[in-house]
Design brief:
Shape: elongated
Number of helices: 9
Structural class: mainly alpha
Strand order of the largest sheet: 1-2
Low-confidence stretches: none
Strand content: under 5%
Order of helices and strands: HEEHHHHHHHH
Helix content: 55-70%
């Protein structure tokens, strides 16, 4: 089965990355490309190898696009001009990671502070972002560890609103009943007071004595 140029270079990239990983356990491992051996443990040789690979890939990629344009021109440019195929950016990124393998595989969590030009893998970068604290948190937290942010009122839940409304309705019924009792007219009291009773007896005495005179 004949491989396309993209499949061939993808396979070559996988082999380079595999050998970069294996050279950590085998110092004598060599990788050959176009008859030339390269020591992948040596970064300079690794860069030289990847430079040749990317150069050859770009040349073949350009030839494929050019053949498509030539075929279109042979048809007297009939139809829409064929679009150029994009480079495999994912494969080029993997080759770049192979150059920076020592930095990307360094598990030291403090390499940002200890290295002059540190590199982080995607996983290390995600982990760093997860551990970071926003500036808003720093603005609102004091040196004593207390949170001094402006308090905000929490929105009630549907259940809490129901409890508040239900309690208000019950209290309103009780207030209405008490108000009705307080404003209702009281019964008419016919009991006479003691001063009125004394005055009545004095009036009766005067009436009796005056009747004797007249």
């Amino acid at each position: 089965m004949t491989l396309t140029y993209t499949e061939r270079y993808a396979q070559l990239t996988a082999q380079i990355i595999d050998n970069v990983k294996r050279r950590k356990n085998d110092a004598h491992l060599r990788f050959a490309y176009n008859g030339t051996p390269y020591d992948l443990a040596d970064r300079s040789q690794r860069i030289e190898l990847i430079r040749y690979v990317t150069r050859d890939y770009a040349l073949e990629h350009g030839e494929v696009n050019q053949r498509t344009i030539d075929a279109w021109e042979e048809r007297d440019c009939k139809g829409e001009r064929p679009a150029s195929l994009p480079l495999d950016s994912a494969m080029l990124d993997r080759l770049t990671d192979a150059i920076l393998d020592e930095e990307l595989t360094d598990p030291n969590p403090h390499k940002i502070a200890q290295e002059e030009y540190p590199f982080m893998s995607d996983r290390q970068l995600d982990l760093r972002r997860d551990r970071e604290t926003g500036l808003k948190e720093a603005e609102e937290t004091g040196t004593d560890g207390r949170n001094y942010r402006k308090p905000t009122k929490r929105l009630r839940t549907r259940y809490e609103n129901w409890r508040v409304d239900n309690g208000a309705q019950i209290r309103n019924v009780e207030r209405a009943a008490q108000y009705k009792r307080d404003t209702a007219p009281g019964p008419v009291v016919t009991v006479k007071s003691e001063p009125f009773t004394a005055a009545k007896s004095v009036a009766a005495t005067w009436r009796d004595r005056l009747s004797l005179v007249y």
